[in-house]
Amino acid sequence: MSTIRVLIADDQDLVRGALAVLLDSEPDIEVVSQVGRGDQVLDAVRSSSVDVALLDIEMPGGTGIEAAELVRDAGLDCEVIIVTTFGRPGYLKRALSAGVRGFVVKDTPPAQLAEAVRRVDSGLRVIDPSLAQESLFSPENPLTDREIEVCRAAQDGSSVKGIASSLSLSNGTVRNHLSSVIRKTNANNRFEAVRQAQDSGWL
User: pTM score, two decimals?
Assistant: First the structure.
């Protein structure tokens, strides 16, 4: 029986360790690497010859979806499963666009998670059924790439001047993008607009 080599990326030590213990108990699965940041995923996949990477979405150093894009663009023979508490349709759509083959929530029973690893390793796709159904009726992300970039820079409450400086844009350009996001989300202000975009999985 060949062994499936697995990477787990999650910024919560307890969650990461628990997943590792659960999967290591399977006779055909071996957790060969664990990281706590999104920007550590690509190097870990390369150095540990990972077959399947289990990635959280929200991590320091980059999201799991961004890490999945890096793995895909590097042409590595590694499949990705997003394992997250944030089961939002917007995230699912972005993950699929990034080449992710699996999307499950963290309360998935251990046996089902192990089976998801096996199925994805064999080239199949595994998506949480309720989330897949919900995504069929969710609105498409109305934000442009630049608006998403501005929203991400605004997530920490930065001022317009701070956002403009970090993105090398003018203050006026940032205000225009934020105004557009407020309009598209029907929010009352930029803070509410960014929160709504985040909750929808658009960022």
Answer: 0.70
